[in-house]
Design brief:
about 300 residues; mainly beta; Immunoglobulin-like; 5-stranded mixed sheet; 2 helices; 16 strands; Dockerin domain-containing protein; Dockerin_dom_sf
Length: about 300
Amino acid sequence: MTLSDFGGTTVNTAYKAKLQVLNHATVPTDADSLPTVVITDSAGTVQVPAGVMTKDSDGTYSYSYSIGGSSVGGVWETEVSVVINGEMVKVNDYWSLSSSPADVAIIEITDKIIPTITANVRIDNMGTSASDFYYVYCIVSSEANLCGGNDDVDSGSDTAYINAGSFINLSLTLDEVPTAGTYWFKIKARALAETLWAAATEQFIAESGTPPGGGGGGGGGGGGGSTAVIIPTIPAGTCNGADFNHDNKVNSVDFSILLAFWQKLSPFKNPCVDINKDNKVNSVDFSILLYQWKK
């Protein structure tokens, strides 16, 4: 005798159990009477005390249960009792119910200029109870690659509280995409108490571009809209490529320092930003920084 493994579902859907009774020759054989069903929710409350299965064919029975929107999420249990040759036999199945199912969508990739990529996304709480939602997002170089592991180009994660039936819009930025090319921005989300994920993927082409010019005159580069950074004073002759702050890595911090001196005249407080020593900071220095990115 076998009972189907249902797996999981969400509120406002239908649960279905299927039972098959086999004889010793594995031929479907009718039970003495119609099997009965007991369904218990994750809080231990019996939701179906004595359901009766329907006969679909010889030895095969099914039962459907409509799950209301206010049902509690978690692991539910279905227990089926059946009499075979005068003997009572019981079998059960555990399945997951999501009461705060998520829905996610990538609205637009708003910034495709490397190394910083930004996407606008939306996460919906499709359930009937408010919850904290955990979301993971990443940029990968292969559509088949999932978020996680050590092969993401860049990744991040966070949580957000969403009321029942509501949604949030997020602007998600990843700033370690080193080269232009084709990538996939991915996001997945679920309520903290749930096991089912919702996911979305958007393909895009990352582009090389001229960084935005500084907008605030002298004094160390008050660039319009750029993030303030601490610019270390580095003695001339101690430069190490594009590692402008001498932390032995080339990343977004060095990129921010480069922007602070973009298209300004020498001398520079940090002379290392003029990587090719032509007395100006421009696209040539930016290209060298990209070549050394994460090296």
